[in-house]
Amino acid sequence: MIYIRSFQFIVILSLFIIFTIFVHFRLFFPIDSFIFDNFSYYDPGQFLLYFFVTISSFGEVVNLIFVAIVFTIIRRTRKMGMILMIAIMTIAISVSYLKPIVAQPKPPESQKIPVLPKGFQLESDSLLTEARNFSYPSNHVAIITAFAYIMEIVIRLKTKKYSFLIWILPPMIMFSNLALGLNYLSDLIGGFLLGLIIAIILSRILKLEAPFLMNRFKGVSQ
Description:
single chain; mainly alpha; 8 helices; 60% helix; globular
């Protein structure tokens, strides 16, 4: 995934733009409705419901910002943490403005989510109040996709054997959100493409693969 050429990036960007137009004009809604209705008949039981809620929470902005802060504090992962932080905020802002433009209404409130333990609740998918009634694209999927892309690059610098395993996270969150009735399929696809686009752009501009050298700043005042 990390060796995406310019042509491949243009293809991904074009797919996102075309797909967003399709969603805006409700051309994808019959498929969304069919899949959503089929998941609504599925009763996973309370244990799996709690499991899905836990998985979905992995994509929350607050949780991933905390992860980014931890990576930023650690010297070896400082650059990755800074890029991840920028990616999270860029995605959150972009999604907040895209949702009202595309204006795809949120799915009906899910009846599957059980009464959660005290102090535990799923985060809203948008930072702005004006965007919370809309669902495309999924902020949580976009952020976890950017996280997976950035993490894969860092892992591949150390070892290539297990770097692909990080890509388990986006499909897991996408499936759990569908199972909980939090998103339509189009929301998840759009979020995945947007997260990938922003992660690619930031990783290249900020040169994620190059080491973060603090000593380049030490001689400035001399």
